[in-house]
């Protein structure tokens, strides 16, 4: 199986269906992930990374969150 880089929400939904997960369970997982986004940004800010790497991580986090419909 090839490694997939651009996962979308529909990919998670397909996996949840495959494993017979209730849609509400998946929705709750996405809600919890969305609620955690600001904390992830805070962790990046308080890290010891150089500023340019912090910026890159912020951008990557926002991009990936947008790909799976959390933004």
Question: How does this structure look, described?
Answer:
With 71 residues, this protein is an all-alpha fold. The protein has one domain. Helix content is 70%, strand content 0%. The protein has three helices and no strands. The radius of gyration is 14 Å and the shape is elongated. The model has no long low-confidence stretch (mean pLDDT 92).
Low-confidence stretches: none
Shape designation:
elongated
Rg, nearest Å: 14 Å
Q: How many strand segments?
A: 0
Domains, number:
1
Kindly report how far apart the N and C termini lie: 29 Å
Count the helices. How many? 3
Average pLDDT across residues? 92
Q: Major beta sheet, specifics?
A: none
Structural class: mainly alpha
Strand content: under 5%
Order of helices and strands: HHH
The helical percent reads: over 70%
């Amino acid at each position: 199986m090839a490694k997939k880089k651009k996962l979308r929400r529909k990919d998670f939904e397909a996996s949840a269906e495959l494993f017979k997960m209730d849609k509400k369970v998946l929705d709750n997982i996405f809600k919890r992930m969305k609620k955690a986004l600001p904390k992830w940004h805070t962790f990046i800010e308080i890290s010891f990374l150089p500023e340019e790497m912090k910026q890159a991580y912020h951008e990557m986090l926002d991009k990936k969150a947008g790909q799976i419909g959390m933004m």
